[in-house]
Give the backbone structure.
Amino acid sequence: MQAVADRKSTMPVLQNVLFAVDGPQAVRLAATDMYLGLIGKVSAEVKKGGTVAIPAKDLFERVKMMPEGPISITTQDNAQTVLKASGSARRYTLRGVPGEEFPPIPQPQDGAVKYAVGVDVLQELIAKTYFSISSDETRAHLNSALFEWDGEIVRMVTTDGHRLSKMEVRVPGRQASTSMLIPLKALLELKKLCDEVMSEPRDKDEVPEVAIVESGPSAFFLVGGMTFSVKLVEAKFPPYSQVIPQGSDKVVRAPRAAFADALRAVSLASSERTGGVKLSLSKGTMRITSESPESGDGFDEIPVDYSGANMSIGFNAKYFLDVLGALSDEDVSLGLSGELDPAVLRSTSDPKTNRDFLAVVMPMRI
């Protein structure tokens, strides 16, 4: 909750997490920044009902410092709240806000369109694309991820104008049709929720699901007992299919781990401003070089599967490293055409896995 609560808001109440008694054995928690909302429940032994909003960051830090075991939460009429550890003298007093002052969090309308997909699928879509979202919040169409469900294909596409990532997963037997733009902050919180659910112990054959509900200007993700609401971005995503080269004159198959290691090493000596490295290809070999007026030169080479003409092309090393770090394949395929044409990095995993990944990286002059 404390990651969703807005610490910079001009509305102080948004810095709080709402506690509301939800029956004799549960407390409902909620947080919002007016764009994202998160609602969840924890089991509790309720002595008296009511609501109170407590500063989220302060509460989080104090609960972390409590010894193991139950915590009692007592709030007064003036919203002053006392946290006390059972069996210990440790306690904190927090100045809260009456729960009635907390803004309502959107809820899906009755009859809203609903889809369901495995949490592992959504987790993979995000993990393999989030790094190429622009951090520039003034460019809403690039500061978000395009989520599409087209027949049996679930897809996520991101771009910052210099690179693009696209991940597709086929989900046999599940048909849907939707398209939405999810802002970066929401995507990172959704990634955390998916990672947490997938890390919990469960039966080997059990695959947790996330329900996705579209309602008005928002989307709702029901995952791991939490309801996460997102105000979707109203912007036009770039026509990504036009950016992806239809074919490549030269194709290199390179060992992923060795490629990443060499890039990381050589980029140490690249210009701090550009992070540029040069890839030079000849039969069976890829040479990676960097030059910096401040820190000198870097050089390495790796064996690759390549039999085309000699060529050299420059790239930002970080863009390649982000992609190579997101993949787990032993080898990757690198498609190239000319020195000024974008490169296409592809996964070499078996098509029978129902997964297809590609990344497009624009070249740079070095």
The chain has a mean pLDDT of 95. The CA atoms of residues 133 and 150 lie 22 Å apart. The chain is about 15% helix and 40% strand.
